[in-house]
């Protein structure tokens, strides 16, 4: 049973679950993947902690992982990119495999030769180097917004969490286009709030966006139903 | 922490969670309601069991309730109308309050004097009399589709579970319009798959539809955050 360490934010967790369901080949309830989901919305802000401006979320992440274990989860996913700063610490404390969202993204990218990958993420994810480090291991170089652009991305992410989608969409579209214009062959939506805001964006931008939430959802379906062809 | 006994079907559970989040007044993650959700997609078909054509889902419902208790839930909701046939049996086995979806619906209806309420539901929900009994206690009379109409509603519900939304929408719209034309002042979408299919329907039909999923979501927000004004 898939355990989802979620609530960061709550709507991003719902978006993730929908993507797991959509990528599962099923014609009735009973063919779907069983999930237990903790929407632990009270986990302290991950970016604030990485920047040294807020409390450590690790105790709350660990407590939520315990709840998932108690409920019977056998494999864990965290639909929050920034929380992956604590991936190794969490993995060290559980026998259950915790899928890594950046690995799931790397599995969806084309060949790495000379490819520059744009990354739209929280300031915490960028400061912690989560994508820079993990994608470098697979041969990719990361392109990031400049300081003003990064501040705008973070502001947009907070707008999504507050339900102000239209304002967030305008900002994120502009920053994604700037990364593509600067030479990124693909732009990763590396915060789970971002695909919620960019769900309706059209080509040509659409074609170069990589949805980290969807990549993790596909990895979960593959892990929970090995050997099954994914639904398109 | 709200415990959601879900997975019946999986997409209906996601729809329910989204409605809980949307009706919670919150401007950041930490203001949202904590939830633990079991998407127990393997619970046997509820309608088949009520009609004597399939295995009893009560043991699987009870096992899922145990998982929610183990994870720390303090209040339970089931976003599946048909599963409420086992509401009393489940409530008898747990100290946690289990909200009743038909009571949540009744709380959203206008004054009962002479009001006839149309009910679109699974054949199991209709055969078990879940809405007829519960709404009669509050002074409402139920209007139901005729046999051919009920068969069509059940077919449409299965189409939603299989991801075939457009076909389901056409059938459900026709059956809802028939109930309204037969004198129902309101038509309850009393299966959690139905609002997924009728999400985009317009007035005048829209105005007379009552979404049982949304009613349950509002009741959960009120139960988990007493004294808080609901978001519109």
How does the helix and strand content of chain A classify structurally? alpha/beta
Mean pLDDT of chain A: 93
Name the poorly predicted regions of chain A: none
Radius of gyration of chain A: 17 Å
Largest sheet descriptor of chain A: 4 strands, parallel
H/E element order of chain A: EHEHHEHHEHHEHHEHHEH
Q: Based on DSSP secondary structure assignment, what is the total number of beta strands of chain A?
A: 7
Please tell me the total number of domains of chain A.
2
State the share of residues found in helices of chain A, binned by percent. 40-55%
**Beta strand % of chain A:** 5-15%
Shape of chain A: globular
Might you state the CATH topology name of the largest domain in chain A? Rossmann fold
Across the major sheet of chain A, the strand order is 5-4-6-7
Keywords (chains A, B): Isomerase
Protein name (chains A, B): Aspartate/glutamate racemase family protein
Family (chains A, B): Belongs to the aspartate/glutamate racemases family.
Pfam families (chains A, B): Asp_Glu_race
Question: How does the SSE layout of this entry go?
Answer:
The structure is a homodimer of 232-residue chains.
Chain A: E1 2-6, H1 10-22, E2 35-39, H2 46-50, H3 58-71, E3 75-77, H4 87-92, H5 101-108, E4 116-120, H6 123-128, H7 130-136, E5 141-143, H8 147-161, H9 165-181, E6 186-189, H10 194-197, H11 205-208, E7 209-211, H12 212-224
Parallel strand pairs in A: 1-2, 1-3, 4-5, 4-6, 6-7
Helix pairs in contact in A: 1-12, 5-12, 8-9
In short:
Chain A is an alpha/beta fold and 232 residues long. In chain A, 48% of the residues lie in helices and 12% in strands. Chain A is built from twelve helices and seven strands.
């Amino acid at each position: 049973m898939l355990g989802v360490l979620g609530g960061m934010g709550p709507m991003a967790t719902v978006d993730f679950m929908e993507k797991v369901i959509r990528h599962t080949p099923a014609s009735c309830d009973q063919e779907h993947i069983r999930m237990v989901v903790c929407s632990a919305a009270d986990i302290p802000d991950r970016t604030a902690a990485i920047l040294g401006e807020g409390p450590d979320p690790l105790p709350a992440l660990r407590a939520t992982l315990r709840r998932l274990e108690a409920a019977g989860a056998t494999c864990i996913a965290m639909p929050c990119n920034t929380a992956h700063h604590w991936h190794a610490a969490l993995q060290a404390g559980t026998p259950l495999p915790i899928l890594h969202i950046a690995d799931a993204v790397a599995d969806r990218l084309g060949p790495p030769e000379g490819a520059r990958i744009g990354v739209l993420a929280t300031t915490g994810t960028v400061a912690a180097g989560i994508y820079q480090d993990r994608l470098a291991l697979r041969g990719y170089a990361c392109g990031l917004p400049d300081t003003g652009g990064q501040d705008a991305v973070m502001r947009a992410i907070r707008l999504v969490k507050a339900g102000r989608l239209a304002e967030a969409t305008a900002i994120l579209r502009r920053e994604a286009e700037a990364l593509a214009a600067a030479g990124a062959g693909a732009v990763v939506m590396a915060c789970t709030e971002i695909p919620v805001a960019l769900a309706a964006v059209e080509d040509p931008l659409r074609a170069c966006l990589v949805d980290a939430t969807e990549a993790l959802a596909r990895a979960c379906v593959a892990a929970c139903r090995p050997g099954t062809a994914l639904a398109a």
